[in-house]
Each structure stands twice: as structure tokens, then as C-alpha cells.
Amino acid sequence: MYRIGELAQRYQVKTDTLRFYDKHGLLKPSSRSESGYRIYSEDDAQRLRFILRAKAIGFSLTDISELLSIELDKSNWACADVKGVVDIKLADLEAKIAELNYFKTSLQRLSDACCGGPESAEHCSILEALESNSSAIKCENQTHRHDPSHYTKNCQSKG
Amino acid sequence: MYRIGELAQRYQVKTDTLRFYDKHGLLKPSSRSESGYRIYSEDDAQRLRFILRAKAIGFSLTDISELLSIELDKSNWACADVKGVVDIKLADLEAKIAELNYFKTSLQRLSDACCGGPESAEHCSILEALESNSSAIKCENQTHRHDPSHYTKNCQSKG
DNA sequence: CTTGACCTTAGATTCAACTCCAAGGTTATA
DNA sequence: TATAACCTTGGAGTTGAATCTAAGGTCAAG
Ligand SMILES: [Zn+2]
Ligand SMILES: [Zn+2]
Ligand SMILES: [Zn+2]
Ligand SMILES: [Zn+2]
What we know:
Two copies of one chain form a homodimer.
Chain A: E1 2-3, H1 4-11, H2 15-23, E2 31-32, E3 38-40, H3 42-57, H4 61-71, H5 79-113, H6 125-131, H7 140-143, H8 153-156
Antiparallel strand pairs in A: 1-3, 2-3
Helix pairs in contact in A: 1-2
One zinc ion binds near residues 114, 115 and 119 of chain B.
Chain A binds a DNA duplex (30 and 30 nucleotides) through helix 2.
């Protein structure tokens, strides 16, 4: 039996977080002391471990609520239900990663075209790319010539 | 010269969004009509295009403010400043992608171990992984045997 | 009997980037 | 002149996951 502060310290979370989980139904302490203090049992601690593990894997608290409700009543759920939660998450994640990779490629192209030196940004290829409609990026060493050691290899090859 | 609705329609944004950009200093219309309507010039439209392009590449509005203030006063900034903004974003993005890939791997391992069938979740390997402390995932076809066509190749190989 | 560490609650705040609302003013058309 | 389609403003709401605050109750030690 733990009080909130003990459980928090044991699992490296804030007491605020445990109160938040209580309020939102993820983890209600199984009892209260006479004076109203939350008292967490070993089962509660196990449930907290479940929550923290699921969080570490990338589930949202909403997902975790769903998993916990299945967990509490396993025999009335099928593998399909559980795997469904995971697979939806996986698909979201893949979409998110694809989007970020797209951003990354775009930014990488911008970065490669800029010398990054102390020269005036008047002809900076990054700003020019953002000003213009075209998706082509002009390498700076055409418009804005200086020590080629500044440029990354990607861009040097064109100059 | 465009009124807010025209500009919004031309660039497929909501009028609310343009008002938001005005309020937050990203895009202030260069004039107002007598009755107080926002009037956007061609330069304003160009600035909006800059904002939208930067957004599409993955910059936050805060980043964009910074880029715009450089853009407005290019000669007093260096390529290093501009490239700095891009490279910081790139580093953030890489960290984020790495984190999401870690989540993805974890979820993929969970998903692979579960049959996803209509069988009771009582011995579902996903739930078991979340209950247990170990990071190892037991494939279901050891505890919970049924039509092996359910399993993915990753998991079948162990059964 | 008081200090200090702990606990309680409801409710406000944070971040981003909008999005929506109410209540009212303007303008073009029928 | 009325109707609809615009526009204005300030301010509230959204999502997620906390984090923080204020005002107060509890408990063990000295
Ligand atoms: Zn340069
Ligand atoms: Zn540059
Ligand atoms: Zn199964
Ligand atoms: Zn399963």
C-alpha cells in the first residue's frame, strides 16, 4: 500500500500525473485513508506499470484507456480487437513518419544549397526558394560566389 | 488588391487563418478600406505565399516569423543566420523521426506476435507484453495455439 | 505547539495553430 | 427595401498531457 508520493517516486512520475490519471479514470487508487489520502495497492502499481509501458511504446492515454478496458475483461475481447488498436496506431505512425521525412528532405535540400557563411543573405538560396514559386533550388555558388569550402558536397557538384 | 475572402479563396486558406496571421503579426494587410475591411496588396499575397511554402516544408509559425524578419531586411543578415534556422529545424526533425521509428519498431513487434484472430484475448501476446516487465515478446502460437495462417512471417518462424 | 513534509480539491495555465461564436456593420443585387 | 453574402471585433473552445496555483487539512518529530 502506497500513498501518492511513494508511488510517484517509485515510478518516477509526478504526483500531479497520478492525480491526473485518477481524474481521467486511467488509474483510480483502490482505496482511500480515513483522512482521504489516496492509497494504492500492488494491483494499482501493476496497472501503473502497464500504463507507463504503453506510453513508452507510443500509445496515447486514450489508446491506453482502451487497452486497459480490454485488459480488465480479456475474455470478452478477441485478439482482433487488441491487434486493431496496435495496427491503427502503427498506421498513424507510418503516416506521421512519412510526413516528417518529406519535411526532412525538403529542408535538407534547402540547407545543402546555402553556404551558411557570414556573407549577406541578400542572395541566400534558402530565402529565394521560399520567395519563388518553383520547387527547384538554385545553388548559391551561381549567384553568390565565395569560398566553395562552405558548400556541402551536394551543392558543390553543381558549381 | 484583395479583400480577405478573395485572398483566402485564392490560396485555399480560411479567412479565420488570415485574421490569425494578422493578429500574430505574420501577415498584416497593407491597408484597410474606409469601412475597416482588410485590403491585401500583391506584396501581401507574395508574403502569404512565402508563409505557406515555409509551412509546407515543415516550419512552425514561430520559425516563419523569424525567416520573415530576415527576409524583410536581408542585407543585415548572413547566410549563416538563415541556414541556422533550417539546420536547427532539421536536427529537431531528425530527433523526432528517430523517436517515432523507435515507437514504430516496438509496435511492429507487438503486432507481429498477435494472431489478430477472433480468439479470446485471454492469452494475447500484446496484453501480456504490456503486463510483464520484460521487453521480450512471446509469440502467441506458443501459449495460444490456432490456425497458423493468422500469424505474420516474423512470428511464425519462432512457432 | 509548532514546523515541515505530506496530502486534499477545483480550477487555471501551458503549447500550436487554428476554429468557432455572437453581435453587429457593409455592400451588391433583386 | 430587403435579403444575402460579405466584413468587423473580442473572446472562447479545441487537442493532449500534463503542470501549476491557491487555500487548506493531516501527521510525525522535536
Ligand atoms: Zn551564402
Ligand atoms: Zn544562404
Ligand atoms: Zn491470438
Ligand atoms: Zn493477440
